[in-house]
Amino acid sequence: MFNFTAPPPLSLYIHLPWCVRKCPYCDFNSYRRGEDLPEQAYIDALIRDLDQDLPRVWGRHIESIFLGGGTPSLFSPHSIDALLSAVRARLPFDAGTEVTLEANPGTVDTERFKGFREAGVNRLSIGVQSFEQEKLRALGRIHGREEALHAADAARTARFDNLNLDLMFGLPNQSVEQALADVRTAIDLAPDHLSLYQLTIEPNTVFYAAPPKLPDDDIRWTMQQQLQEVMGDNGYQQYEVSAYAREGKRCSHNLNYWHFGDYLGIGAGAHGKISDAEGISRTIKINQPNAYIDKAGTAQGISDDRRLSQQDVIIEFMMNALRLTDGFPVPLFQERTGLSISVVMSALRTAEQKGLLARGARAICPTDTGKGFLNDLLCLFLSEEDQYPPSVRDSRRAYAVRTPNSIT
After folding, report:
1. Fewer CB atoms inside 10 Å of the end CB: C or N, the chain?
2. pTM for this one?
């Protein structure tokens, strides 16, 4: 059924699950840190986990590495250095390969950033979320405005020339003017990349149990439109629904997700996707960090390992590729899914007739209407009896599909 002409690009995702405290909006697999962070034990577990996955990718080259969380910047530069050295000894990647580490402004300083840079991290993603003190308190963040400003400055002092700032909009009681002020403050710091997410209330979060008062749909829509305009006016090109970059600074790792590339996922709760001659498989590692430390590298350390059906593959590809502003080249569908474009031709025609999709000779991309109503567009690629497959529902932010007119 699947016919791959060549394996897709391969990335490595490493999950470091601890935070100083859990934010009330967060539905990622993250845990409040105890008194003692088991750094060495967890690094050892990650290496065992990687060793177990290596036979799936023998002979393949790593295109990008992403250390996400949780709060990876809680780990010492020494531990990050040991981890990346272990990866380097097992999988080939070039000296200039993008290596991203997520950081919380409340857990870093210049010397720590310098240590990460010396360890081989060359891209930082700092979770600012807002520069307004009241909004940071409402989001449960451990940092304030000054720590956020200092973190961006410290990153430059530490010689990071590829810096992303994460911001959120649609925050509790936020006005359009406050959202614009946050983005303008971020732009003044001259990051190379900005990720701009709309706050949404997710199940299994504190906010889900006790929802805060959020701006209504009309206000959030106005925020989105004006934020996009400000970003464009200041040289940031929107290339995905929540991602903006200066020339040459798009995130390679996330682009590999959105182009339906392959990736190994190691760490507690990490997801992986690997293509081979028989099709595409998806793995999920066990969630709980202490259990993961005990069982990583064994069969018990894997909570799910399955082959994707043709329907799974189609919807996962579309959920990713149609998030991109420019859509995807027509040949990419067959290259990354192993399926002929003919299997989705009927859905493509319907989407085009509804004004949700534009089909050219070389590329397929969502229209402005399709970008605003991504859920409706994606539903066209599901058969009537199907629902979103578990592998899609449970994935990280690369597969998040929010409500219509959202930017996340």
Report:
1. N
2. 0.92
Asked if residues 69 and 102 have their Cβ atoms less than 8 Å apart, the reply is: yes
Cis peptide before 170 (omega within 30 of 0): no
Instruction: Specify whether the CB–CB gap between 256 and 97 falls below 8 A.
Output: no
CATH number for region 10-256: 3.20.20.70
Q: CB–CB of 86/78 below 8 Å?
A: no
3-state helix, strand, coil in the chain (%, to 5): 40, 20, 35
Q: What angle do CA 67, 294, 269 make, to 5 degrees?
A: 40
Concatenating the DSSP letter of every residue in 83-122 gives: HHHHHHHHS---TT-EEEEEE-GGG--HHHHHHHHHHT--
Structure tokens at 15: 């999950």
Given a contact cutoff of 8 angstroms between Cβ atoms, the answer to whether 63 and 97 are in contact is yes
Please state, in angstroms and rounded to a whole number, the distance separating the CA atoms of residues 181 and 175.
Answer: 10
CATH topology of domain 310-388: Arc Repressor Mutant, subunit A (1.10.10)
What's the pLDDT tens digit per position in 250-290? 999 999 999 999 999 999 999 999 999 999 999 999 999 99
Contact between residue 15 and residue 287 where contact means Cβ atoms under 8 Å apart: no
Amino acid at 10: L
The reply to whether 310-388 shares the fold of 10-256 is: no
Residue type, 67: L
In Å, how far from its chain's centre is CA 223?
22
What does the pLDDT look like over 182-233, one tens digit per residue? 999 999 999 999 999 999 999 999 999 999 999 999 999 999 999 999 999 9
Q: Give 55's Cβ-side CA count (13 Å radius).
A: 3
The vertex-160 CA angle with 157 and 163, nearest 5°, equals 115
Measure the CA–CA gap between 18 and 256, rounded to whole angstroms: 25
Looking at residue 247, its amino acid is E
Query: What are the domain boundaries of the chain?
Result: 10-256, 310-388
* Amino acid identity for residue 376 in this structure: D
For CA atoms 160, 161, 164, 165, the dihedral sign is positive
pLDDT at residue 397 above 70?
Answer: no
- CA distances (Å), 132 to each of 136, 157, 367, 381, 385, in order? 6, 24, 34, 41, 46
